[in-house]
Amino acid sequence: MRAVIERSPYKLSLIIAVIFAAMLSGCASRADKSDVGSGDPPEVIYAEADKLMDKKDFSEAAKKFEEVDRDHPYSPFARRAIAMSAFSYYKAGMYPEAIQAAKRYATLHPGTKESALAQHIIASSQYDRITDPSRDQGRTREALKELQTLVRRYPSSPYAAKARNRIKITTDMLAAAEMKVARYYLEQKTYLAAINRYRVVITKYQTTAHVEEALMRVAEAYMALGIKQEAQTATAVLGHNFPESKWYQYAYKLLKTDGLEPRESRTSWISRAWRNVKPGSG
User: Fold this and answer.
1) Which among 56, 90, 92, 223 could bridge 231 via Cys, Cβ 3.0 to 4.6 Å?
2) What are the residue ranges spanned by the domains of the chain?
3) Which pTM value belongs to this model?
4) What are the tens digits of pLDDT across the range 70-121?
5) Which helix (H) or strand (E) holds 83?
6) Nearest CA among 264, 173, 275, 281 for reference residue 251
7) Which candidate, 176, 240, 185, 188, places its Cα nearest to that of 213?
8) CB 42 within 8 A of CB 77
9) What fold characterizes domain 175-282?
10) Could you give the CA distance from residue 90 to residue 62 in angstroms, rounded to a whole number?
């Protein structure tokens, strides 16, 4: 009896170990099955993904499209499935996943039929997350870069016209952000800091409406610093390009208070920035 009692704990431990191992084996088996996928032919999986898209179940559709690429990478459906997974993630509002899938398509299949769509998804995923001009504009700059890439690489694509319009919007937002900071510096009488911010608008964002005010404010800041030649140049450039602008009228009156007239210095950075700009292009 004593011998039996001494061996019982050992047998009990062995039984527990066997049961635990069986449980782990079952879990691993289930995990392996989920990793493998359905095992269906690629055309069947693709059709299922399409049905999910029709039901607007975009996140599940994206997973199904990814299953086509993962389980049947050499099938005729695999290439388009990558682009469609990116599109599905975008429709689901899952922007990081959409960008990742679209970039994967662009890397694996450059110059193919869905390349423009992939770039459109990347640009749109950045654009849809833009914040207002009072926030950090890092995402706006990223969106602008991707939109410009779309127009440059695929100028005749169905997405180019929308991209061009969005480029105008993102450029305007970046200019507005610079103007907001510049106005603050001007109000604080930190004139050089204000000029540096306005300079960004004048040199980089000449096609926005903000450039007119930027030129006038630069003239104002230079007058406050006593650098009158630059103030005259800013006003002359403003008048040459936007003769009907209210900002030109303000700048002109400012010069007149000191007995000055608009006069452009060809060596000024303002003049150089606008040398190749046609009147009224803003």
Assistant:
1) 223
2) 175-282
3) 0.78
4) 999 999 899 999 999 999 999 999 999 999 999 999 999 998 989 999 999 9
5) helix 78-91
6) 264
7) 176
8) yes
9) 1.25.40
10) 9
